[in-house]
From TrEMBL:
Transmembrane segments: none annotated. This is Proline iminopeptidase. The keyword tRNA-binding does not apply. Gene3D superfamilies: alpha/beta hydrolase. It holds the Pfam family Abhydrolase_1. Residues 31-263 form the AB hydrolase-1 domain. Its EC number is 3.4.11.5. The lineage of its organism: Bacteria, Pseudomonadati, Pseudomonadota, Betaproteobacteria, Burkholderiales. It comes from the Bacteria.
Length: 282
């Protein structure tokens, strides 16, 4: 379904699981987990069906960021982190969600970090998964070279430093398999994604180049879980450790997954969902 979040902006939203469930003589309200997808330029489909296993603990909300996927197209002037971060609040206001648990994967984690900085008291908990706080090109290139040799490094440098349709197509064809350490459990998942490469190129050529999200993390007022695969080449371990260190000590938690790449639930679903379940339930 599409939800109007104000100003005529409609986001595609999907809901998995009941929010109210029978519990003896009462109806018990479960927390709401909002899942923010990666990219930019992709959609929410990568979360499905895996995150459906959390519906015994929480009502799971998937949505496509403004301008993405099945959400309404929007002008490029709105393709920025401030707008996408504020959309979390707008969406919650439209749906009547109070104190959500907000999970951001990869680019969704960029949105999550900006959301924490701009709306530090809004969430009950935040999960930053497989994400970075800056471009960190040197780290990316070194990580891709470790995973795929000089050719992978060259493809990564060409795209991240000089984003275009041509450099992205070569990069995606040549290094996408290096993002993870195990073959995809669902090899057709990528073909289900609705991609808008114009958003990706716009962001990588612009805001991504000077991305600096650490400073705002000190404002966090809720528990924040940082999840990182130790073999993630695109959002390296060092970035996650710096995100963790920038958060208030009383709120931060860190989960490292050895032998795991981008999106811990893809390479080690048992360990990743154990951590997620414990964080949601605590």
């Amino acid at each position: 379904m599409k939800i109007d979040i104000g100003g005529g902006v409609r986001l595609y939203v999907d809901v998995d699981g009941a929010g109210l469930v029978p519990d003896g003589p009462q109806m018990r309200e479960k927390p709401t987990l909002i899942c923010m997808h990666g990219g930019p330029g992709f959609d929410h489909s990568a979360f499905k069906p895996a995150f459906g296993q959390l519906t015994d603990l929480a009502q799971v909300i998937y949505y496509d960021h403004r301008g993405h996927g099945r959400s309404d197209p929007r002008p490029s002037s709105e393709w920025n982190l401030d707008v996408w971060a504020d959309d979390v609040v707008r969406l919650c206001d439209a749906l009547g969600i109070v104190k959500p648990i907000v999970l951001g994967q990869s680019f969704g984690g960029f949105v999550g970090q900006r959301y924490l900085a701009r709306h530090p008291g809004h969430a009950s908990k935040v999960i930053l998964s497989s994400t970075s706080h800056h471009m960190g090109l040197d780290r990316k290139l070194a990580a891709f070279e470790r995973r795929g040799g000089p050719e992978a490094r060259a493809l990564a440098e060409a795209f991240w430093a000089r984003p275009s349709h041509a450099t992205f197509e070569a990069y995606w064809a040549g290094v996408r398999h290096l993002y993870n350490t195990r073959p995809a459990a669902d090899p057709e998942a990528g073909s289900r994604t609705l991609a808008n490469i114009e958003i990706l190129l716009h962001f990588v050529a612009g805001e991504k180049q000077d991305l600096g999200l650490l400073q705002g993390l000190a404002r966090a007022e809720c528990p924040v879980l940082v999840m990182v695969g130790e073999d993630d080449p695109v959002c390296p371990l060092e970035d996650a450790l710096e995100i963790y260190e920038a958060l208030p000590a009383q709120h931060r938690q860190l989960a490292r997954f050895p032998g795991v790449g981008h999106g811990a639930w893809r390479d080690d679903p048992v360990a990743a969902f154990k951590v997620l379940r414990e964080f949601i339930a605590e």
